[in-house]
Design goal:
9 helices; about 220 residues; eight-stranded mixed β-sheet; about 45% helix; alpha/beta; Rossmann fold
C-alpha cells in the first residue's frame, strides 16, 4: 500500500526514515510532502526513488497517510488534501492535542492517532496507538504490523493518553538526563574517577536492571 507522510520534521522525518531503513516500507511505495522543499530534497537524496509531492498529490495516491504536524498546522494541510480524501483511506495524526472525534468529523477517512518516541531512531521502544470509531480491524492490523517493525506498538484509549505520553515520549529524555547526571556527579566527586568510566557503569547498570525487571517480572509495588 502506498504510504504518505505529510510533514517530515523531527517526528515525521524520524518515522519515514525508520520505516524505510527497516524495510517495512519501500521507496516505491513511500510518499512525502513538506512545506520546506529543502527537507524533501534531503530525504530524496538519502532515499532515491521516494515520491516527493504536494499534500494533494500525496492524498490522491496513498491509502495510508501520516499527518506529522503540530495541531496548528493541521488545518492548512487538510485544506490542501481535502479534494482527494475519501472513506477508503486511513489518516493517522501524530498530534496528541487533536481529539480523534474532531478529526473524524473533519475528514471522510477513517482515523487513528500515533504517538512515537525518539527511541524509534534505533527501531525500538513504544509507540502509542489510538483509533477512531470508524477504524476497522484491518486498520488495526495494518498499523500495528507496520509499527511493529520499528517499535512495540501499544493500543490505548484516548483518555489514557496524557500519562502514557509522559512515560513513553517524555520518559527517554528524563531517564537519559537522570543517568547522565548520576555519572557526572560520580566523576565530579572523585578526581581519580574518569567520566567515561562513570557513564559506562551507569549505562550497563541501567540496561541490566531493566533486563532483571523484565525477566523476574518485578513489580515496584511488591
Amino acid at each position: 500500500m502506498n504510504t504518505g507522510f505529510v510533514g517530515i520534521g523531527s517526528m515525521g522525518g524520524m518515522l519515514v526514515r525508520a520505516l524505510l531503513r527497516s524495510r517495512a516500507l519501500t521507496v516505491e511505495n513511500a510518499w512525502a510532502a513538506n512545506r520546506s522543499e529543502g527537507k524533501l530534497t534531503a530525504l530524496a537524496a538519502e532515499f532515491p526513488g521516494i515520491h516527493a509531492a504536494s499534500g494533494r498529490k500525496l492524498a490522491a495516491n496513498c491509502g495510508l497517510m501520516f499527518l506529522c504536524l503540530k495541531a496548528g498546522d493541521t488545518v492548512s494541510a487538510l485544506a490542501q488534501m481535502d479534494p482527494e480524501l475519501h472513506p477508503g483511506q486511513l489518516l493517522v495524526t501524530t498530534a496528541s492535542q487533536i481529539p480523534l472525534q474532531a478529526l473524524e468529523d473533519r475528514v471522510p477517512c477513517r482515523v487513528a492517532k500515533l504517538i512515537p518516541s525518539i527511541t524509534q531512531e534505533i527501531g525500538a521502544g513504544v509507540t502509542l496507538l489510538m483509533y477512531g470509531p470508524r477504524a476497522t480491524a484491518d486498520d488495526h492490523k495494518l498499523l500495528e504490523d507496520l509499527m511493529g517493525r520499528i517499535s512495540h506498538p501499544i493500543v490505548i484509549a484516548e483518555s489514557q493518553s496524557r500519562p502514557a505520553i509522559g512515560l513513553t515520549s517524555g520518559g527517554p529524555a528524563f531517564v537519559a538526563y537522570l543517568l547522565k547526571s548520576m555519572a557526572e556527579e560520580a566523576a565530579r566527586s572523585n578526581a581519580d574517577f574518569p567520566p567515561e568510566l562513570a557513564l559506562s557503569l551507569v549505562q550497563e547498570t541501567a540496561t541490566t536492571t531493566l533486563r532483571l525487571m523484565a525477566e523476574a517480572n518485578m513489580n515496584p509495588r511488591r
